[in-house]
């Protein structure tokens, strides 16, 4: 379905981003990866799907590096058709104890980076009459949790950016939508599970159950593969008039 298209997925060397990159590649899209971690392993997983793969190590807190990444993607593949803003970091502390530098970093990477990629990708998409902007927000773009002020603020902001972009492109072939996952068993979340198991003296499986039971009625993690399938749907003709949506894939979290 996406043969001949090019997707840039930020924060895509593992977890959700890699899952989305692989799902788009499985539909024929060439992919530009970005992020830290096991770059060669991630490239190999995507390349195994018989598409062209690129990589750019832009620091998503740096607007200049983001601009270089967008330019590199367009130079290597000729166009940028699908933009997936997934890069993100987390820090947990009460508001009155939250380190200023941590706040600034989370806003820069989780929110401002999506503005910079979007503003640079839009002109080409509009000129070609087709484009997809998919922002990986979070259930925390819809509801809050204590001690996550910067993350929640950034993810609420991402949904606002998504809606505004959708309105500004409403009469074009470009769409903008957000996916709002609940708990996903990424390497970052696995570390939280491990820490909880150690702190509470329980098994890893029991730590997972307790984590899910606090928020997610389904008692199961959303998977990168499920999120990838949603991204593919958002790129399909069936989603041509899906504009400004924030779709929660959260096991019932916000239904409570």
Salient structural properties:
about 260 residues; alpha/beta; Rossmann fold; 2 domains; 7-stranded parallel β-sheet; 8 helices; 7 strands; oxidoreductase; 3-OHbutyrate_DH
Protein described:
The structure is a single chain. The chain is of the alpha/beta class. The chain folds into 2 domains: 6-182 and 223-250, NAD(P)-binding Rossmann-like Domain (Rossmann fold), CATH 3.40.50.720; 184-221, no CATH class. The chain is built from 8 helices and 7 strands. The chain has helices at residues 15-26, 39-47, 63-77, 100-128, 149-168, 187-200, 204-215, 224-234, and strands at 6-9, 30-34, 53-56, 82-85, 131-136, 174-181, 246-249. The chain has a 7-stranded parallel β-sheet with strand order 3-2-1-4-5-6-7, sandwiched between helices. The longest helix is centred in the middle third of the chain and has 29 residues, at 100-128. The relative contact order is 0.14. Keywords: Oxidoreductase. It holds the Pfam family adh_short.
CATH homology-level superfamily of the largest domain: NAD(P)-binding Rossmann-like Domain
**CATH fold-level label of the largest domain:** Rossmann fold
Distinct helical segment count: 8
Q: Percent helix among the residues?
A: 40-55%
Overall structural domain count: 2
Largest sheet: 7 strands, parallel
Structural class: alpha/beta
Spatial gap, N to C terminus: 36 Å
Strand content: 5-15%
Mean pLDDT: 97
- The helix/strand series, from N terminus to C terminus, equals EHEHEHEHEHEHHHE
Enumerate the spans where pLDDT stays under 50 for 5 or more consecutive residues.
none
| CATH classification class of the largest domain | Alpha Beta
Secondary-structure arrangement, i.e. CATH architecture of the largest domain: 3-Layer(aba) Sandwich
The whole-angstrom Rg is: 18 Å
Number of strands: 7
| Shape, per Cα inertia axes | globular
The strand order across the widest sheet is 3-2-1-4-5-6-7
């Amino acid at each position: 379905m996406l043969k001949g298209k090019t997707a840039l997925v930020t924060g895509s060397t593992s977890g959700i981003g890699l899952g989305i990159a692989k799902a788009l590649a499985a539909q024929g899209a060439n992919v530009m990866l970005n992020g830290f971690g096991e770059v060669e392993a991630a490239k190999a997983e995507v390349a195994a799907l018989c598409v062209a793969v690129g990589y750019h190590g832009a620091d998503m807190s740096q607007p200049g590096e983001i601009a270089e990444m967008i330019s590199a993607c367009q130079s290597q593949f000729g166009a940028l058709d699908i933009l997936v803003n997934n890069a993100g970091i987390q820090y947990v502390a009460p508001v009155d104890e939250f380190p200023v530098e941590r706040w600034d970093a989370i806003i820069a990477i989780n929110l401002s980076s999506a503005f910079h990629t979007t503003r640079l990708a839009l002109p080409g998409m509009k000129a070609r009459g087709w484009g997809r902007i998919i922002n990986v927000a979070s259930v925390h773009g819809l509801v809050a949790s204590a001690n996550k002020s910067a993350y929640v603020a950034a993810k609420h902001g991402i949904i606002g950016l998504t809606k505004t972009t959708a309105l500004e492109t409403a009469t074009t072939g470009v769409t903008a939508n957000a996916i709002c996952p609940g708990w996903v068993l990424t390497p970052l979340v696995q570390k939280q599970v491990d820490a909880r198991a150690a702190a509470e003296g329980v098994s890893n499986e029991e730590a997972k159950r307790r984590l899910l039971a606090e928020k997610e009625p389904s008692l199961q993690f959303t998977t990168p593969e499920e999120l990838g399938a949603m991204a593919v749907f958002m790129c399909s003709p069936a989603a041509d008039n899906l504009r400004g949506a924030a779709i929660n894939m959260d096991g019932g979290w916000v239904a409570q």
